[in-house]
Write a structure and sequence with these properties.
Elements lengths: L20 E6 L14 H8 L6 E2 L4 E2 L5 E6 L7 H17 L3 E6 L4 H12 L4 E5 L19 H9 L4 E6 L4 H7 L4 E4 L5 H7 L4 E7 L21 H14 L1 E8 L10 H17 L1
Parallel strand pairs: 1-4, 1-5, 5-10, 6-7, 6-9, 7-8, 9-10
Antiparallel strand pairs: 2-3
Length: about 280
Amino acid sequence: MLNKNVETFLACDSPYKNAKVVLYGAPFDSTTSFRPGARFGSSAIRHESFGLETYSPYQEKDLLDCSVFDSGDLELCFGDPELALGGIENRAKIILEDGKLPFLLGGEHLVTLGAIRAVAQKYPDVCMVHFDAHTDLRDDYLGSKLSHACVLRRCWEILGNNRIFQFGIRSGDRSEFLWGASHVETHKFNLDGLKETLQQLKGRPIYFTLDLDVLDPACFPGTGTPEAGGIFFPELLHAIEEIGQDANVVACDVNELCPSLDQSGASTALACKIVRELLLALS
């Protein structure tokens, strides 16, 4: 049984026992390779969410009608990635054991590894749908195997071949693309092929991981490794709706908001809206 956070994401204050979805934050960015600050993403999303309405005119759904519990941010060890991942994994296990969907707010993208470790134990045949600007398939980054630049490679070590499906990819070392060609399915530059992939995975458990830098920095500059040539909100919204309708999502995360890198607050506001729409799509 988890206790409610003092400040919750917009309207996510259902009693834990009744909740279908449970939010939990992972304020961790110790392996960030360029601009740090993603550790403040989860709290910023929670705080700024009250600038939104609970109702979505896109999906014609309202968070007031959903059962979502916000358990708040974890207290993680910034100096030890493995300890931090252990804390994330343990929280995800509790949520899964209680028959609920864990929704993780990052934090940098490495936090996904802690969650997928727990999810793969409960759902051994889980597949991963991954939206990102970057492949994240390096075997190591500057000698470290625990880096946000390596997170999908570590996930592959758990899941194996033909179970990771990447979209929006437009950046990576040449060796990552060469290695990935025979181990994962990569859709470059946009989200084309998502519908076909979801049909292929129909009925199978899916972990959905959304790195917000899949968005073009023209609309989302508040991220640690911005990469030109990305998608825009309407395309991402359509994909989220498709995932909600066609995918058996058993866990998900949204990561890599760095609020201090966009002093206008626009990136945080956009991240909040994406979280709202994803919650509604999964509810």
